[in-house]
Amino acid sequence: ANDVWSLAAVFYKLLTGELPREAAAGAEPLEVVLNGEAVPLRERNREVPGALAAAVDRALARNLSERFADAGQMREEVALALD
After folding, report:
1. Taking a C-beta distance cutoff of 8 angstroms, is the pair 13, 26 a contact?
2. I need a labelling partner for 30 at 20 to 30 A (CA). Which of 2, 20, 63, 78 fits?
3. CA angle, 30 then 74 then 70, to 5°
4. Burial class (CB in 10 A: 0-12, 13-18, 19+), 73
5. pLDDT tens, 62-82?
6. CB atoms < 10 A from the CB of 2, how many?
């Protein structure tokens, strides 16, 4: 699950130029990652296709049960979004 989140965070940064979660000045970074909600990708970049944004957003879900089961499942979803 962590590999899926990490890969999605890299995609998010590449597609938006920003980190997935907003942090107030002085906030503890680990606390933000563990307890914050990701800003939906299309709120930051409307040009990203909806299916791709949905796949990245799903991989960044705070609740593990909402994420992809593994990186292979995420790869399949991203490939479909780019097809």
Report:
1. no
2. 78
3. 70
4. middle
5. 888 999 999 999 999 999 999
6. 8
Q: How far apart are CA 13 and CA 8, in angstroms?
A: 9
Tokens 């796949």 correspond to 55
63: left (phi over 0), alpha (psi -120 to 50) or beta: beta
SS3 content of the chain, % helix, strand, coil (to 5): 60, 0, 40
Rounded alpha-carbon distances, angstroms, from residue 54 to 10, 26, 27, 28, 30: 15, 30, 27, 27, 24
Cα(44)–Cα(16) distance, rounded to whole angstroms?
Answer: 6
Residue 30 has pLDDT above 90, yes or no: no
SS3 63: coil
The residue length of the chain stands at 83
